[in-house]
Amino acid sequence: MPIVTLTSDFGIRDSYVGAMKGALLEIDDALTLVDITHEIAPQDIAAGSHTLRHGTPTFPLGTVHLAVVDPGVGGKRRAIAIDDGRHRWVGPDNGLFSHVLNLPQIRIHELTNHELHRQPVSPTFHGRDVFAPVAAHLARGLDINMTGRQIEDPIRLPMASCHFLDGTITGRIVHIDHFGNLISNVGVSELERLGRLYTIKLGDASISTISSTYTDAPPGELLALIGSSGLLEIGVRNGSAAQVLAVDRDMLLTIHATEPSDD
Question: How confident is the model over 62-96, as pLDDT tens digits?
Fold first, then answer.
């Protein structure tokens, strides 16, 4: 069965998610609909992009990902569909899909074929009236070329990269999850450049050990580990590192080598 995933900042208290699913099933009631999350913070495009990057890779070939974090709805922002050769993506052109835009041989189309849209189109609910119908048609096998004109200039979010200089990595916190874990943009390959011993500093906190699991630390204690996304995380066992450290997204962290690498 064709699969369509849904990601949004709609929450689940209102009718918006249900209406969007209804618009999908109105076109094909055999679709399999999978919620990734509807708890993205309102208008937080960067958090939506992070969620899509790490929440979608396990889905099978041909999955369509419908994502709506859309503070520019009804304005000049474009509506787009993307085919990356494995999955397809439907939503606003505002950087939400930045993680796939640099893949080779992607095709990006503006949703200018109004015959695919639900009528009348509400200027405030493109998730129901534009994105959902197009996603349903793509899941049924529609060629992306039929969605509208091809474009070459999609919006990209600025990518937070980490930097290596004189035995020190400088990175950032790029995501804070539901548990208050602080997820950085520093991966395993960057840490390996420092050797086997180093000290992680975030604000006033200092950590010198990479744990394997949260149970490596006593309850309430701060720890660092490599999370399921392959990125360095700062957490508190049975607690929230975000609350304990009073840290927000984009805060800098540094990692200093305390032993020369083998290079």
Answer: 999 999 999 999 999 999 999 999 999 999 999 99
- Thinking of the domain 3-147, which architecture would CATH place it in? 3-Layer(aba) Sandwich (3.40)
Query: Rounded to 5 degrees, what angle do the CA atoms 99, 103, 109 make?
Result: 85
For residue 260, is the peptide bond before it cis, meaning its omega torsion is within 30 degrees of 0?
no
CATH pick for 163-257 out of 3.30.70.2520, 3.30.420.240, 2.40.30.90, 2.40.30.170: 2.40.30.90
Q: CB–CB of 131/21 below 8 Å?
A: no
CA-nearest of 31, 77, 69 to 52 is 69
Q: C-alpha dihedral over 212, 216, 222, 225, to 10 degrees?
A: 0
Burial of 137 (0-12, 13-18, 19+ CB in 10 A): buried
**What are the residues whose beta carbons fall under 8 Å from the beta carbon of 87, sequence distance 6 or more?**
56, 59, 61, 62, 63, 64, 65, 100
The pair phi, psi for residue 251, each rounded to 5°, is: -65, 140
What is the pTM (predicted TM-score) of this model?
A: 0.89
